[in-house]
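HUMAN: Forgive my ignorance: could you write out one protein's sequence and backbone structure tokens?

ASSISTANT:
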Amino acid sequence: MNKLLKILSAGLTGLSFALPAAAADEWRFNNFLPETRPESAELEKFAADVNEALAGETTLKIYSGGSLGLPNTDTLRFLPKGAVEMSLMWANYLGRDAPALSSVVVQGTISSIEEFEKAIPTVREIYEEEFREWGVSSVGYAAIPMLSVSVFCRDEPIRSIEDLKSKKLRVWARDQVETFTRLGVAAQIIPQEEMYVAMKTGVVDCALYPALYAHTVSLQEVAKYASFLYPMASGPYVIGVSTERWDATDDRIKQAVAKAAEDLWNRTNQYEDDFERELAARDKLVEGGIIWGEDFPQADRDLFVSSVTETWKMLAEEAGGNAPAYRERVLKALGR
């Protein structure tokens, strides 16, 4: 019995994903990222390339920003059922249903482009294996930039872990909750679409977020201060299709998707200009009213990495199954 059937047997068959049926010649692509994100522009280019190759025979249409009403945490539930033809997936959002996926690459454990490039082929192999178990075929990838994660705060500058201990911190993944808890910081997961209001109303005092994307969620409107904490490499976004649908898909469509996906990966799997883009993003945020402070001290950053490393081990052991082996494979690829 595969993992999808296990979920169904646990009583999840009652989940309903009521979407209007797609036209016979349209594939709906569920993109949970906002339209303003650079990755969304790359996905639009991917769709345009597929559509050009198919010359109107089949149309791939991007629905961004969660406009189809499909929670990104539920992808392994709705995609195999055919609620949508294609969807973007990010492993770190899927830990509830597939714990092993969220411990393949724990954010903050890989801190250099050189290390990350060693790990990428192994990470992609693991994703393909794991998603296949869920009845999902990985038909493409979009690389995520090497990000610089900063702490954005509402009312006062926070530039040390010690000072952060007195604040409520917004994060976006469980591994971050576990890591900051180890450090004595109260962290809670708040979805990206709720972060603005949470900051504005004081539900949280500070938010963990990459400066590169902060303007896409208007973070400069609700945070006055920011300081860099750690560099972050993440496993790539995956473009998924139900394996049952993919196996039944015409070869011409498969070839068009494969070629466009290869081009998408080649365009996005580039990291040389990431730091320059980061600095430019910070300058733009300063123009918007952010006061950019000094980085967190090196000792704090080293402490954070040490805590993340322990979190990675703990999550892999807790997940069980293939998770410890996945972690070992990634560590071996990293040469650790």
Notes: The chain has 14 helices and eleven strands. The radius of gyration is 20 Å.
